[in-house]
Amino acid sequence: MKKNKVSSEKLGNLGILSIGTKAIYLKQNQDSSNSISVKVIKWSDLTNLINDKEANSITEYKIDMQKFYKRASSIIEKGDLIFSALPSLSGENIILIDRDFEDTYICNDNMFIFKNKSNYSSEYLYLILKSGLYNKYLQHLKVGYNKKLTIKMLADIEIPILDEEKELVNEYSNLQKVKQEIQKQEEKFNNKVYELTKCTLNM
User: Fold this and answer.
1) What is the CATH number of the domain that holds 31?
2) Across the chain, where does the E strand assignment appear?
3) pLDDT digits (tens, 9 = 90+) for 54-113
4) pTM for the full model?
């Protein structure tokens, strides 16, 4: 049976892609009156933050305001898609920033930041890019001696334009709510077991 061809758009045409940065820091004896505090984050810390886990190895720096604004594209904001340039141990290649942070975070240079400028939601793009086929494709791109993604590789990825965009996003949102409720119930259950059994070990 002949399949209907799905229209697509290159990721690079849907927003702005940029690489993270190695921040240029103020020296110890430099005037810090015109500086801003930022936290340069690596992939493992970012995954911890998104999963509400403690991120211990994030270092805070003071950056000159002028240099800070030059690196505005590296600042993590709600709605951004973050790609790992290197192979990750978890096999996870993309993270959706689904919240605002109190602190200012900048991606390091082993990550790419996609700032969505299209009519399609970041959630939709995320669901497509994290799906099995696309995840394998992103892993496949990290081959060769360097084993790193490039902006061109990402920009050339074809994103299917589906009429079911809102349906997919809503379904995913509902699944996430169910998942969160299950996690709460599991935590409640584990606490109950702990309270009932702790006296056995005299703890």
Assistant:
1) 3.90.220.20
2) 8-10, 15-19, 35-41, 59-64, 81-84, 94-96, 105-107, 111-116, 158-160
3) 666 677 777 777 766 666 777 889 999 999 888 776 677 889 998 888 888 888 888 899
4) 0.76
